[in-house]
Design brief:
Layout lengths: L23 H7 L8 H7 L6 E5 L5 H14 L8 E5 L2 H19 L6 H13 L33 E4 H12 L10 E2 L2 H13 L12 H17 L4 H19 L12 H24 L2 E2 L1 H12 L5 H11 L2 E4 L7 H11 L3 E6 L19 H5 L6 E4 L1 E2 L4 H17 L8 E2 L9 E9 H15 L6 E5 L5 H10 L4 E3 L2 H6 L1 H14 L4 H11 L3 H20 L9 H10 L1 H11 L5 H20 L4 H11 L2 H7 L6 H19 L5 H13 L16 E5 L8 E6 L57 H31 L2 E12 L11 H8 L4 E5 L9 H5 L30 H4 L1 H16 L6 H4 L6 H24 L8 E3 L9 H8 L8 H17 L18 H13 L10 E13 L2 E15 L2 E10 L9 H13 L6 E7 L4 E4 L8 H14 L1
Parallel strand pairs: 1-7, 1-8, 2-3, 2-6, 4-5, 6-7, 9-10, 11-16, 11-17, 12-14, 12-15, 13-14, 15-16, 18-20, 21-22
Antiparallel strand pairs: 19-20, 20-21, 22-23
Length: 1148
Amino acid sequence: MSAPKPAAGAQFLALPTPPQRLTPAQLFTALGEKHMPTDQQEKVITAPLKPTLVVAGAGSGKTATMSARVTYLVASGQVDPSQVLGLTFTRKATHELRERIENRLGQLYRYPGWTASSTRSNAAAQVSGGLSTADSSSAAGGIGAASSSQDQDLTAVAGEATVATYNSFAGALVREWGLEVGLETDTAVLTPASSWQIMYELMENWGQEFEEPFSSLDSATELALQVANSLNENLLSVDEARELMADLGQNLKDLRSVRGAAKAIDAKSLPAMTKRIQVLDLVERYIDYKRENSLVDFGDQVALACRIVTDERVGPRVIAQYRDRFKAVLLDEFQDTSVAQTILLSSLFAGCGVVAVGDPNQAIYGWRGASSAALGQFHRHFSNGAGPVLQLSTAWRNDPQILQAANRISDPLRASGQVKVEKLVKRPGVGDERGKVWAARVQDGLAEAELIAKFLAQRWSPSKSMAVLCRTRSQFTPIVAALIERGIPVEVVGLGGLLDVPEVADVRALMSVALDPTSADRLMRLIDLVGIDAADLDVVWSFARELVNARANTGQSSAEPLLAEALSEIVVNFGAFEAFCKKYACALSPAGLYQAKRLGRILQEANGAANLELVDFISWAERALGLDVEAAARVDVNEVGARALAALRAQATSFKSQNPEAGAQVFLGWLNAAQDQERGLELPEVEPAPGAVQVLTVHASKGLEWDIVVVPGLVEANFPSYRSRPKEDYTVLANSWITQVSEFPHTLRRDYDSLPPCPFIGLSPQAGKDAILAAGEEYRSELGKWEVAEERRLAYVAYTRARSQLLLTTSHYAALSKTPKMTSRFLKELERSQMVQFLADDERDDDLSNRALDQSSVSVWPHQLDALAGLEEPGVADAPGQAVLGKQAGLSLRLRAAALVSAAGGCQGAGSEEALQIPEGLAPQLDDWWRQARLLLQERQIRQENGQEIVLPSHLAATAMAKVGKEDFIMSLRRPLPPPPSKAARLGTAFHEEMSQRLNSEGTLLSLAEAGSDRLSPADRKQVNDWLDNVAELEILQGYSPYATEIDQEIRLAGFNVRCRIDAVFKAVEKGRAQWLIVDWKTGGQRVRVDQLSLYVHAWAASQNVDISQVRAAYVYVQDGHVDELRPRQIIGLDVFKERLETLRAQH
């Protein structure tokens, strides 16, 4: 369904003139389309302007079909482009849909003889049954009329289609109509990080005891935000929720009180309900805080918009305006809409030309408020219960063998669904045997990771895209390690994956202990990192107890012993430690004492470092642990640690810009929440390194595709994921919301009628024990089926991400399990249907242990010294026979290895293995280590002598091009440093985010005068608002509409990828041709040369396949509204930039 431009001189097919009906095939042929629409696509494209549901399977070309529908509606005169509204969920999807629509309309605009009025005449004629005059060939230059001249002007349609995200559409409605119902419209939209900070601080300052205590501030904050979002999604007030939850909790308590019936309702149900009720007061305070500070979050936007459209006085006027404005409405991914979104959209457009597109089998976002019943209830909301349901079932993405597996997995979903979903069918011209579904069943998770790495290594090439899709992030570590071991580039996607990288985990551990010495789990990671063994740790722990006892004996308040305190005390008061050792006749080994002092000094310094700015605190932690040197010395192809540390600093910078007043404790809490929520927080999308295998969760894979996909961990209770013990018959009993406090009670949800009915509602204690027990058993069974169906949708999404090859793996002993696990039903079903070919199918060997258990206490990083694992450590034992075993020695083993390497280097060519006392077989490895060490030392010497040794990056920012070759540029490459924090930078970031927020994805819905502010002080708010006022009515923007913001474009020059970060792009259409305007906002007062904009012009022109003459660019200085436009004669050619980079490469 691509949209190529007609070739020059092509013979255009004359389109039919009224009263004949224009068909999609005729339109596609006329416009030079390569592929004709299928019968299913044609039905969707030509569907009347009335509520229509389109069930579009995975990879069925729904975006291409929707853009073709818009073109058809415009070409046939049924709508003007300005009367088209398209809504999607993400910025990426918004950009793609808008681009598809504009490309197709661009073809129509260029069609000889086409004018805007011609289609309107065509439509009028179709309605009346014929033309009002006999001269059909000349009537208003009809779309089928022969062109009198190829050079005649092409008239563009007035206005453009509006494409927006669901939330930005709701936000625009609130800003336009909010004052009518007493709402504040000059508001800023909170980012998730900002919402987290506000709720965290409210919780921290709450000052009240909870009846049911929380494990941490983080968990309480997380629950409060979840409840707040759920209230918005289900249009509930705090008071309504409090009353309903109290009644529900009392009902469960009464039923449990019946003698013998308690096990029908899990005992955890009452504490879970109490915790939800507890945070409602906090949620109420959060709502008040947002109102007092003119703030809204994403959930507020939809809820407030619903309030407006349902208002008896204002609602009818709003509805009339939107129905008059938008005649054709496209609702993308409708299965992911919440109840509130459905109510908003049906209030506005019920009975109108709405086409909702979605796939109930891909409804995987129920955890964030989406209702899987949205598609099945579409016509109930939009057309009084009846209406057409069309299908798109041709899979253009997947090969037939993969389709067969996907169809098999989704069979139960189709059988029980509320709406008919046809099986996916292969695309035309493809043989049935194309594609491959592999499987493997091995002993344990490590063997599974090794097999995956081998499988991908055998098929790897830079041109192939590959991904490993995990059900949970806990599966990442062994898989990433196995890929790295084989030298395969790997990219861990998502913030949660970033936090699992060992270097990042080490930094978080040190920061956490610095802020909270009671963080025992984090401290144990540091103890393991430096290499304090178990015997030495016992001595330190005894010293910690002694410190507590000493305080108690002197009348001071005592507390639990703290290892962190003891380690610090060894440094600051070594005499006291020596006295303790003498008193109890104990001692640390020399290696243990060295490491205890080292860690103690780090913890001492941490007290002061905790007061640094956030990014500086992180950098200090890296240096204190030696991670900066260690990561820089890594020579493998992945450099995962170095990139992960850089990504952590970037996350901290972003968090701090959004929350200037937040400290490190809030940031760490936010990271903890991101890690605890397996689905993670949304991150900016980044392109993987060429040839890199992407490792991510299945939830994060939605909307993506790869040539080869691996789905590991297919064991019951992992995938599908559930909490109960797996049964041989694969039945599942689940408690769901009854005990899981993070899940909103089903009985309070607006889509409750689509969920398993709760038998406890209306059941009184008088019903008796047997009735209550039966109800509990039945409900747990129904909840189990519901949870498995949710997981089945997730499996369907995972399987349909693969284009040509799919590998499904399982193991007998998964993760850290000590007992064997059952193979997942999602693999067993395919196995029974003979749809998979096994690469390995190992019998379970109960005599073999789960190797992951043996490795669970060993650090993955820094480098393992497996070759030295059995060595005794001469010189560190206190007495003969007290040598420290290698597996316990930690860093002492690395010191031993260093000594051996030094010996190997000092005796090269003269010594022997025997003379050096080097264990048999270890000499080659030591020689290799020595060569690496010698190279590193030589590089350091060259660096010290010349001061110019650098490693050229593969990517450069366009902003750096003006500095290429200069001394400060070279220095920045040698040791990149983050910019120092400053008020100007913070205000600049706030301005850019607010401009992006209001312009992005909103088309013509907003004027340039509308904006908000984040959590700024009154003085800072005034400053930003003044800047916004200065650019509100820029002359250069006249005639242009917002197109996109914060866009990354890359252009390849002299072997470098030069990345252009474009602030904003605006678009105008003149005589059928797109005209582009790039704007770079400058919040500083110093004028900048416009040369940099040349790269932006070249990059954008290349991305749109247009000449640079169609692209303008300008700096806008927001302090005074000054505009500095790049004139055509000032544009620097790409050859100049290329020459600069070639010179740089030649010199370094």
